[in-house]
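quick one, 174 residues, struct below
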Amino acid sequence: MVRAKHGRGGAAVRWLLVCAGAAALSAGTARAVWAQRIDNTVAVFAALDKVTAKISRLEVPLNQTATFGALKLTPRVCYTRAPTEPPKTTSFVEVDEVMLDNKERRIFTGWMFADSPGLNAVEHPVFDVWLTDCSHPRVAVQRPATPGATATRQAEPDAEPVEPDPSRRRRVPR
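---
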């Protein structure tokens, strides 16, 4: 332990050491608490036409484009969590607007969150689009029934099996 010559300085150093130890401890345990995300192949959106006041449900496969009015939506990824975990549905989406001269203009690129639709919303005078859900998981993961058992995987017929490596997690820049 580091000691200072003055009485108050020693208390401050001890307090910093306690805070650093608590931060290191919480960082180590937080990693074990994170829920595993489920990669899906379809993003589900709600789209509002403000002129007609009609809400439409759009189910868009990843990396494919759906058209709603003058907007073109292209989801790139869509993640959810298991039903037993707190909900966290996210999708990375690109939205283009088709102008009157048939040129496209990108009006939104970023993450959408189903539980906070107003956080990263598409701002358009005629249309609103927000993420509501993801569907068609690529790989279904079942939790082991006993502590020593391993998880079983069932893949969809046209999906490639993905082996998770807990030591190598992709970090998405924010």
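The two ends are 37 Å apart (CA to CA).
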